TrEMBL record:
It is a multi-pass membrane protein. This is TonB-dependent receptor-like beta-barrel domain-containing protein. Keywords: Cell outer membrane, Membrane, TonB box, Transmembrane, Transmembrane beta strand, Transport. Gene3D superfamilies: TonB-dependent receptor, beta-barrel domain, TonB-dependent receptor, plug domain. The keyword Transport applies. Belongs to the TonB-dependent receptor family.
């Protein structure tokens, strides 16, 4: 069931890591089985139920640097054909930087009922409250020399991002003689109060329904796995803006309505031509409608409603091979078409001091990937090489501090790189049976470039560093304790501008995690980060050319200084 709103935007504040059972990443065309058709793919967050919960009761408490503390609790019960689970988390922090205090409250629950041996239904509910002060971006010099300060404009406008959201959903599963039918339905209400350059005040509702049929059968003596799905979801969002008077509403400057409708049909088929080799085929047809109604520049100075919009149609096929010579060994290759539709944060932009609808094109790409994943004795790995040829890539640049980034369609771009994860048990049985010394390595290589662009030639696309590496060395005694030092290394910082004249710094961070099981179901843990108190840039906003007259170079967000967190977890 999509967490995204109807226009495709999403809010990760609605994802509580402590309320998840597992997370699976389906990059690119691998997301087709879930209805995904974007270049990036899909992330599947799996929530626990009372049937799969680790324990009927779980409590967790932690506290640490910068006035940070978190409390979380989960309870689950089974009564015959009924089961229920509820999870609540509260997180608050004063923040490392000035004007960065935040508070997050997240409630998730689900109730399931087995109607018969072949039919069951489950209801989901979520309530999410976010209150976050924004310290704003800094220049590179400020981020590296005085990183704890806030941008003066963020202080003057008391800039913040406050969100209240509710989410209700149902999944009903029917096991048929031929396969399984899942019918999902959902509704999401979101209220956003976001004082930045102006006060952005929005109230929206998204709803949808999605049947999905899966079946494994034999065709001509060959095993065949089939997924067929439909999805309709829509939404409306009242989007108003006001003059920002130190975080409060002043004169209204915009009254508008954003409407989105989406019609999608997809299928994916795996035909095992031999027991170890599957031909993967699939396609998705989609129609995305975006409508924008500008009701005037404020109630006192209305110019009459103006209706604008754009419709995006698409067909995205997929063809691949999957070779699995052993249960724990796979090799795969795919060629996939993708289409990304701009959301309303892309389509409504600040142009000459006012908010306007900009009818951007969809981003379309062909992606080729080849990879392998597996586990052999002491070694486990996941490796992918990919190349995407993109037309109309949706890129952003920041026109001024506090103003939402404007989006444009680039010409021809190429995104290519490597994603590699390795895990190796260097030694076992060092001190006792079952223990292990394990080396972990993750490496991401990003070579994202323009191709013959009239303005940016073959420059690298700004916003992300070429290499990101994370190395861990863990010693574990199962059910007793673990210690895991970690090294994060970015050899070159990301370019901040598309002209490739200003970039963030390179850095190395050291961290340490450790935990001890003090009794059955009871553990204590510590998480120490940035032990050397390195000053570095953790994120940035992109700009066109840092050398241009009047260019806003306050686009860097400094990473937190040295911090230590400790806590306990009790399951019973």
């Amino acid at each position: 069931m999509p967490v995204n709103l109807a226009d495709g935007s999403g809010d990760f504040y609605q994802i509580d890591p402590l309320a998840l059972r597992s997370v699976a990443v389906f990059p690119g065309g691998n997301a087709l089985a879930y209805g995904g058709s974007s270049l990036g793919g899909a992330v599947n967050f799996v929530t626990p139920t009372a049937q799969t919960a680790e324990a009927p009761n779980i409590l967790r408490a932690e506290a640490g640097t910068f006035g940070t503390w978190r409390l979380s609790g989960q309870v689950s019960r089974i009564w015959g054909d009924w089961d229920a689970l509820a999870n609540f988390s509260h997180f608050s922090t004063d923040g490392w930087r000035r004007h960065s205090r935040g508070q997050y409250d997240q409630f998730n629950a689900n109730v399931g009922y087995r109607i018969s041996d072949t039919v069951e239904t489950r209801f989901y509910a979520g309530i999410y409250n976010t209150r976050q002060l924004l310290p704003g971006a800094l220049t590179l010099s400020q981020a590296l020399n005085t990183p704890r300060i806030a941008n003066p404009a963020a202080l003057a406008g008391n800039q913040a991002r406050n969100v209240w959201a509710e989410r209700f959903a149902n999944r009903t599963t029917v096991r048929l003689e031929a396969g399984q039918l899942d019918v999902d339905s959902w509704v999401i209400h979101k209220r956003l109060y976001h004082p930045i350059f102006q006060v952005i005040d929005q109230d929206g509702l998204t709803w949808g329904i999605a049947p999905r049929w899966t079946h494994s059968f034999t065709a001509g003596g060959l095993r065949n796995d089939l997924v067929v799905g439909l999805r309709y979801f829509a939404g409306t969002n009242d989007a108003d803006q006001y003059v920002n008077l130190r975080g409060s509403r002043g004169r209204q400057t915009l009254s508008s309505v954003q409407r989105a409708q989406n019609y999608e049909a997809y299928l994916e088929n795996r035909l095992w031509v031999v027991p170890t080799l599957a031909v993967v085929t699939g396609a998705k047809a989609l129609r995305n409608e975006r409508e924008y109604e500008d009701r005037g520049r404020g109630l006192a100075n209305s110019r009459g409603a103006i209706a604008l919009g754009r419709t995006y149609d698409g067909f995205v096929p997929r063809l691949g091979l999957l070779w699995q010579p052993q249960p724990d060994l796979q090799f795969f290759t795919n060629i996939t078409r993708s289409q990304d539709v701009p959301d309303f944060s892309d389509l409504t932009q600040q142009v000459r001091g006012s908010t306007n609808f900009v009818p951007l094109q969809a981003q379309r790409a062909w992606t080729v990937e080849i990879g392998t994943r597996g586990r052999q004795d002491r070694l486990a790995w996941d490796a992918v090489l990919f190349r995407s040829n993109i037309n109309g890539q949706l890129l952003q640049f920041t026109p001024a501090f506090g103003v939402p980034a404007n989006t444009f369609n680039a010409g021809t771009t190429v995104n290519q790189g490597v994603e590699l994860a390795l895990r190796a048990d260097l030694a076992r049985g060092l001190a006792r049976e079952g223990d292990a010394l394990t080396l972990g390595q993750v490496w991401t290589y990003n070579d994202f470039r323009f191709r013959g662009d009239p303005q940016y030639r073959d420059n690298r696309i700004a916003g992300l560093p070429p290499h990101v590496l994370r190395t861990t060395l863990a010693y574990t005694q199962p059910d007793r304790f673990f210690v895991r030092p970690a090294l994060d290394w970015v050899p070159q910082g990301a370019w901040a501008d598309y002209a490739n004249t200003l970039r963030a710094n390179a850095y190395v961070l050291l961290g340490l995690e450790a935990g001890v099981t003090v009794a059955p179901g009871v553990s204590v843990f510590v998480d120490a980060r940035n032990l050397t108190n390195k000053r570095y840039v953790t994120d940035l906003s992109t700009i066109a050319d840092a050398r241009a007259a009047g260019a806003n170079t306050a686009v860097f967000y400094p990473g937190d200084g040295r911090s230590v967190y400790a806590g306990t977890r009790i399951a019973f």
